[in-house]
Structures are given as C-alpha cells and as structure tokens.
Design a protein that fits this description.
Blueprint (H helix, E strand, L loop, with lengths): L15 E3 L2 E6 L9 E7 L11 E15 L2 E5 L4 E4 L5 E14 L12
Antiparallel strand pairs: 1-2, 2-3, 3-7, 4-5, 4-6, 4-7
Amino acid sequence: MSDRFAVLQLDDLPTRRCSCGTTRRGFIAESDGQASVHLLQVRDAVTHHHRVATEYYIVLAGEGEIELDGVRHPARPMSAFLIKPGCRHRAIGDLTVLLVSLPAADDTDEYFDD
C-alpha cells in the first residue's frame, strides 16, 4: 500500500449484514473515513435514512426498484441514484449495487422509523 493510493478486490472482502442485505465495505480506513465503497447484495432491505451520509447507488446487475421517500423507481444495470441525508430509502428486488458513501459508512448514522 502507498500513502497516495489503495487497491482492493471488492468481492474478496468479508461479507457483513446491513439494512439492505449483505455488503462488502472497502476503503474506510484508507480514506481516513472520508468515503467508502461497498459491493451490496440486496436482500430483505429495511427502510432507513442517514443524517450525515450521502450515498450513491449504481446498479451493476439485476432488476428491482429503489424506494426513495416512499416513491419506487425502477432499477436495472447502470441505473444510478443519489441519496442525500434525510431521504428514507431501501432497495427492492434481486440487485447487485456498487454503493459509494460520503463520508464513509458509519453504523451509528443509520436511523429506522418506528
């Protein structure tokens, strides 16, 4: 590793459960928490929002929908979604998503409706 760049193989990272399914998160430490990149497999997603993070979803494979503030939008390969803080969202369907989070993913910045 260099102090000027980092390289990783997303599909080699460990899988962990998240509110949208399972994810493999990278570059959190390498970016000093400024950003993270995730390989997300959608499964049983729960509506949630973030108070700080902005997320970019880029659909790599599959068909489904992204629900943003209660409105469902079709999602297919190369669909992209910008999700700003406060937007309640979830992914629906059989989707593989490249997710970029600014700042980096932080489980304490995840809020669910009661």
